[in-house]
Amino acid sequence: MTTKPTEKRSRFEPEPMPRRDFLGLAALASMAAAFFVSMFGMLKLPKAAVSASPAKKFSVALPDALPVGEAFVPPGRSVAVFRDGEGVFAISTVCTHLGCIVKPNANGFECPCHGSGFSKDGSVTKGPAPKPLPWLKVSKGGSGFVIDEEATVKTGTKV
Amino acid sequence: MKKNKYLLLISSLGVLALLVAAAISENFLKEWHAIQGQARTQEGPIDVKLRQIVNPDLRESGPLRDLPRRNGTRGTGPFGS
Amino acid sequence: MGEANRSALNEFWVNLKSVPSQIYRAMFRGGAPVSDRTRSSFVFGNVFLHLHSVRTHLWSLRWSATMGLGIITTAAFLITLVTGVLLMFYYKPYPDVAYQSIKDIHFIVPTGRFMRNIHRWAANVMVVAVLLHMARAFYTASYRKPREFNWFIGWGLLVTTLALSFTGYLLPWDQLAYWAITIGANIAQSPREITDAMGITQFFDIGALQREVLLGSDKVGEESLIRFYLLHVMILPIVMAMLMAVHFWRIRKDGGLAKPVDVDARVKADAQEHYPVFTEEPKKTYQLAAVVKGRTPAVGSGPENTVPSMPHLFYAELGVLMFTTLICLVLAFVSDAPLKELANPLVPENPAKAPWYFLGLQEIVSFSAFMGGIGIPMLCWIGLGLIPFLDKETEGTGEWFGGPGGAKLVGWSMIYGFATSIAVEAFAIRFGWLREWFPDIPQLVITLVNPGTVITVLYAGFSIWALKRFNSTRAGALALFTCFLCGFIVLTVIGTYFRGPNWEFFWSPSDWSAH
Ligand code: HEM
Ligand code: FES
Fold first, then answer.
1. Secondary structure in 3-state letters for C195-261
2. What's the distance, CA C92 to chain centroid?
């Protein structure tokens, strides 16, 4: 191999990096692009498309002798169902602050985690909860009533 | 450097002492040693075996705690449920 | 005849006999570490040791320079690594089964309880040590040029440490774990407090997205457990190991630990204890090898006041390693890791508490989820990361509480930091907060004005005062860092010891009524 005589350089001043190295830049840019796109592909995986969980819609049979103002909590659900003269309604018992399960009490609900208090219609009376407890959609059917934990209705809607 | 050598020496001796203490409590002082020591049948004391059969009624947890369920005799699970 | 004598069989026999000594020589290729040169090659010839520089300054070997805190953190990490791998032999990451496997480890597996205790305690030691180590790097002003990048890496290590601890917290799948993680995950959703208040949640629900990616589902369940497990045993330890390697290597490349400018005058006394440090003057430097440009103080004069890392530094490191092991063993011996009932998604623990190092945040979270969980932590975290770029003074580098204001300013900041946070908390506990007085107040106001933000603003004000008073960015940083440290302590203590069922204030946990 013959070397072309070039201008003399010392080790301290090596040949400069070429400023416009189109081939090199194109190669690097396409690598970066491939990397970037593959990142998207990889980030897509951890976000589940479907999440297996128990059905959010379920039917409840209310006890006939449920006193007005007393909560009926269907087993295994985070919902309080009430019946009064105007009909049946369901309030979610998942605290709107950080998701603890609130407990029905004489004045409404209380949350054990950071002390949020809610009145009987779910509105916030105390503590850090930012929003009232949502009312859930209730319809007649099944073995009495069907409650959909995913559908909220306006506060005050009774069936 | 001397200070560091002392630190190493004393800490290591301390660790050794604790390991010995842990070995003693592990091999002789655990509750179940006493319980096992008392348990005996007509043939004599019961050995510790790898496959312990656990009575589901006692709600006892053990290595094969769900064995009764697999056999279909299904008692209450060990933790209520 | 010589040809015939050299039979291959004979040679094989001779080789076989000398295998042990050959292996020995292959292991200790540089020869026994008895001279300066062989001691150096002992260090740079070994892939693990060469993260160290071959010589260590006497200043850095003083206990007061680092208090060994970085090594304590490293040691605690190594201990969790070893015990963690042992726990993996029995642990099964599936709801309910996970709980039973931990129960087995705790009650049946030989030495299982001891290993579990050590793992748990070493993890806590690591969190404490990393916080103290950060404080030490800050108070000795060691984050300055050229160590800005290493501070950055350390900043990543801090987050990784907390994340490791947090993901490990869920694995026992008991009530404690389940509700701590539910709350933690919901904090990830708390940007909703802001998007809701602005009415844009339908279009831009970053809170729910964060939570969903973390949990893999809409609540803490099997998907979450396997994710936390993956993070805890694979992803985060690998990240941690890589960051640590960079962290250590940077120390070497940054010329060892930070030292005061007049360090040589100061270590004269120490130097007496050690044999003459440099026996030959170096003839060559890296600059002459055309590898490095710049000042090379080492030409013609030995690097004064340094000693070979082998064995001086290694005795120190091993000493701290065993000391940390001792601490973890003692703690594991006297106190068992907790295990409550099996997780029950329908009945929260009361009180439901996060891991202790997050209880300060939970205390603010109990006023505003967003500020406590995202707003203020982010502010602190970003502020911490930017310290080396906001304070570029040079006075006091390498000295405890170095810089304008010094220890006196730190003392005053401590008093102010404790007093204000205690006062604001006491007020909020005694008189309640905005919602109790004005039930219809908009959520956005509470998000912006709550004890957490009030304390933050008071601290910022004090720091600006200190900055002006001493006309120094370092003074401002000293004041702010100290204040936040004190606030962290106060809130953590309140969250840990003074909050009981329903997050109400109690003077002592023994007053918590049975619930
Ligand atoms: C897993 C966590 C960490 C480990 C294992 C670790 C380890 C170490 C070690 C062994 C040293 C040598 C000096 C000493 O022992 O103190 C060191 C120095 C240093 N660390 Fe860390 N560290 C961690 C986290 C952090 C954090 C959170 C910060 C700050 C944000 C930080 C910033 C620094 C700086 C600036 C130095 C150089 C100090 C100097 O030059 O004097 N490190 N680290
Ligand atoms: S989760 Fe209900 S008050 Fe915090």
1. HHHHCCCCCCCHHHHHHHHHHCCCCCCHHHHHHHHHHHHHHHHHHHHHHHHHHHHHHHHCCCCCCCC
2. 28
Cα–Cα distances (Å) from A115 to A97, C241, C431, in that order, read 10, 41, 15
Give 10-residue mean pLDDT values along chain A (159 residues). 58 70 87 91 79 75 79 84 84 86 85 84 83 87 80 80
Distance from C-alpha of C130 to C-alpha of C158, rounded to nearest angstrom: 7
User: Could you give the 3-state DSSP secondary structure of residue A117?
Assistant: strand
The one-character DSSP state at A126 is E
In this complex, is the C-beta atom of C505 within 8 Å of any C-beta atom belonging to chain A?
no
How far apart are alpha carbons A132 and A125 in whole angstroms? 9
User: Is B12's Cβ below 8 Å from some Cβ in C?
Assistant: yes
Instruction: Kindly report, residue by residue over B13-53, the tens digit of the pLDDT.
Output: 999 999 999 888 887 777 767 777 777 777 777 766 655 55
The three-class DSSP label of residue C33 is coil
Q: How far apart are CA C58 and CA C305, in angstroms?
A: 6
All structural domains of chain C: 66-270+310-349 (1.20.810.10), 355-515 (no CATH)
Residue A9: CB atoms within 10 A of its CB come to 10
Q: Are A142 and A57 in contact (CB under 8 A)?
A: no
B65 reaches C (C-beta below 8 A): yes
Q: What is the pLDDT of residues C135-157, one digit of tens each?
A: 999 999 999 888 999 999 999 99
Contact present, B58 and B77 (Cβ < 8 Å):
no
Whole-number pLDDT of residue C89: 94
CA distance C338 to C342: 12
- Model confidence at C299, pLDDT cuts 50, 70, 90, reads very low
Rounded CA-CA distance A114/C501 in Å is 9
Residue C91 contacts residue C101 (beta carbons within 8 Å): yes
Centre of ligand 1 from the C-alpha of residue C73, in Å = 9
DSSP E strand stretches across C41-117 = 55-57
Q: Average pLDDT in the C56-73 region?
A: 88
Report whether residue A103 contacts ligand 2, using a CB cutoff of 6 Å: no
Angle at B60 between CA B66 and CA C100, to 5 degrees: 60
Report DSSP state, residue A102: P
The whole-model pTM stands at 0.83
Decide if A115 and C504 are in contact by the 8 Å CB cutoff: yes
